[in-house]
Amino acid sequence: MHDNLHLKILGDRLQKFGPDGCFMCGVDIPPGSKLRTEEHVFPKWLLRDLDLWNRSVTQLNGRLIRYRRLVVPCCQPCNGVDLSGVEARVKAAYFEGFDAFKQLDRRDLFIWLGKIYYGLVYRESLEPRFVEEQKGERLVPNEHLESIAFHHFLLQTVADRVAWAPPSPGPASFHFFECLDSEIPEWRFDYMDDLYVPMLGLRLGRIGIICVLQDWGRSEGAQEGHLVAAREVMLHATQFREVYSRLSYMTKAFWRNNGHLVVGGPERATVTYDPQPPFEGVTETRHLAEVLASAWQVPLEAIFDGDRLCSTIFDQSGEIASMPDNSSLFPAPFSPIGLWPWNVDLTEEGFLP
Ligand SMILES: [Zn+2]
What is residue 2's predicted lDDT score, i.e. its pLDDT? Predict the structure, then answer.
């Protein structure tokens, strides 16, 4: 539907695929081109601060790639002019702390998080699915990038070519959760995203943020008990995955397709949208349990007995569960195993009660 939006409305800044175009504006920058730069999907300052520079992330095909190698082709004007202002403001807020991060301008946050989401998909579209077939099938096919063309169109706000009316809430919902920090690098960072709805969750030290990139503020109205309670405490790594999973489930189960009127252009196009109704619908406990089991990397039966579903936000007496630090372990209620990041067999020696 939005395939030709860039061309029809803006006339340029097309969505390009492959290693020779700028991932943001589509301009040709083959290797050797003067305007070619590399944009780190996760910024360098963040990787250094969280001590992730030399650490690895597992890709869709199970191969490991170092965070610092997660780069996409980007032209000099996009990297050095358009994106750098946003980057500087997000960086300053990050180092100031959770409250400053929460106060960031919504458009800055949309660009920053939307760029990470899009950049990762783009990066995976450059990778071969099989190492031995360098020119063969891609890890993520171009069709998947095409399916998020409207997101790419909205990202053109970075060059002030796309805006929306009303200006707030804008395309995305943001959910902030203060988290427990740690001395151990592996426990200071988490990233989750979703192939079927454009959303992502990031935990960066004390800052936890979950963003639904295109629900036009809708999920911010969710008054679901677990989400409300989760804002009362500093979340443990396991708990942050629970709130992400709950938001992911709700977003998917109650998704609404919005039609948008795009007016103006080519200098500047404006996307109009209507106020969003609250979530409504019945939670299918089993489906929610499947999302949670996947996030906690445990079998479904370990956390769901067909009737009761495990939660790490409330303890057994119904109080909000507050943990002293990230080293504590949440055991699964129906199997002797720990929930992510402690996926250990609790019957093994050392874990016996
Ligand atoms: Zn560019």
Answer: 46
The two structure tokens encoding residue 66:
């170092």
Count of structural domains, the chain: 2
Distance 207 CA to ligand 1 centre (A): 29
Q: How far is ligand 1, taken at its centre, from the CA of residue 267, in Å? A: 16
Domain, as residue range, for 311:
161-353
What is the 8-class DSSP label of residue 9? I
**Pair 134, 199 in one domain:** no
Where is 19: in which H helix or E strand?
none
Indicate the pTM of the whole model.
Answer: 0.95
Q: What's the CA-to-centroid distance between 76 and ligand 1, angstroms?
A: 7
Q: Which of 180, 115, 189 is nearest to 312 (CA)?
A: 180
Q: Are residues 135 and 217 in the same domain?
A: no
287: tokens are 């489906």
On average, the pLDDT of the chain sits at 92
Quote the CA–CA distance of 289 and 340 in Å, as a whole number: 15
Q: Cβ of 110: how many Cβ atoms within 10 Å?
A: 25
